[in-house]
Write a sequence for this structure.
């Protein structure tokens, strides 16, 4: 069974550009979580989608947005990129609203903003 | 003060030694606790849940101290493959997950 897949693996952008990151959850999982992990920092919660709806949002500016498609895959968009947006972006999926013991992570997208 | 704090390390430990590290949390409404392991530039993976009575999984022992608001992870007979960053995760009563920044562990031969 395929795990959580994220694309692209690496993404290089310049300040002011827009980035789109993609995530495909494990088959059957309806929830997708997005996290930002900057160097030396813990995972910072960005967004949680379940059944196509945004359920919760972390303390990030509105230029971080996303959506979940009918097949439960998800997209994270970051507009007007800033240097401090450089980080590893991790996507996790679960069966509905589940605790950490039920989260399965993808290997992430490393975003570099120059 | 961060909601979940960990000593970033790195902890440099000889192979075969015992190592322990703590994670403190500030919100007494925290419901449940977990340790994740993250290898360099890889995704986090669940290591173990932390139960009130403490729990053990092979060489790993997790403890919870609600009075002092910390959890601990003890690794016995450490192996080279234990080298990783260990992340503490706290789940709040609204299901929100708060992640620590991790403790880096380096096991040396």
């Amino acid at each position: 069974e395929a795990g959580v897949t994220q694309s692209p693996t690496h993404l290089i952008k310049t300040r002011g550009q827009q980035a789109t990151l993609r995530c495909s959850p494990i088959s059957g999982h309806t929830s997708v979580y997005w996290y930002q992990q900057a160097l030396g920092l813990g995972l910072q919660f960005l967004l949680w989608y379940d059944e196509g709806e945004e359920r919760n949002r972390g303390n990030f500016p509105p230029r971080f947005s996303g959506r979940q498609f009918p097949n439960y895959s998800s997209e994270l968009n970051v507009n007007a990129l800033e240097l401090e947006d450089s980080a590893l972006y991790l996507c996790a999926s679960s069966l509905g609203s589940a605790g950490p013991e039920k989260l399965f992570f993808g290997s992430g997208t490393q975003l570099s903003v120059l | 003060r961060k909601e979940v704090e960990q000593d970033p390390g790195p902890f440099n430990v000889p192979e075969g030694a015992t190592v322990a590290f703590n994670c403190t949390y500030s919100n007494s409404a925290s419901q449940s606790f977990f340790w994740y392991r993250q290898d360099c530039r890889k995704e986090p993976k669940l290591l173990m849940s932390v139960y009130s009575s403490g729990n053990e999984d092979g060489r790993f022992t997790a403890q919870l101290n609600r009075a002092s608001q910390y959890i601990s992870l003890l690794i016995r007979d450490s192996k080279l493959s234990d080298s990783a960053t260990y992340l503490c995760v706290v789940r709040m009563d609204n299901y929100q997950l708060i992640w620590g920044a991790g403790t880096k562990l380096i096991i040396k031969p």
Q: What stands out?
A: Chain B is about 0% helix and 55% strand.
